[in-house]
Design brief:
The protein has about 90 residues and is of the alpha+beta class. The chain is built from 1 helix and 5 strands, in the order E-E-E-E-E-H. Helix content is about 15%, strand content about 25%.
Length: about 90
């Protein structure tokens, strides 16, 4: 069963400190140094795929997906006026 977070290995996430530090798998105060930091998901574990390991924390901690926020990628498309009009026309036909 997949969780509602739909994370995949390689996704970039921001770590948030849980309100309840006893929530599974438990929050260690040393994890505070990763709060607000963007890290990549290295591994997804658990029957419900609700526990992850992250790159950049020296392979030390596991995180509940509830504590993570997906970083959305910005897609910048630079088109000149002619290219933009051509792109728009493909949807108008």
């Amino acid at each position: 069963m997949a969780n509602c977070y739909h994370f995949e290995v390689g996704d970039i996430v921001i770590v948030h400190k849980p309100e309840d530090p006893h929530e599974y798998p438990g929050w260690n105060m040393n994890m505070d140094s990763f709060v607000g930091i963007e890290l990549a998901i290295k591994e997804i574990r658990g029957i419900k795929r609700d526990i992850v390991k992250l790159e950049g924390d020296n392979n030390r901690w596991i995180y509940n997906v509830k504590w993570l926020e997906l970083v959305e990628e910005d897609i910048n498309i630079n088109l000149n006026d002619e290219e933009l009009q051509s792109f728009i026309n493909t949807f108008i036909k």
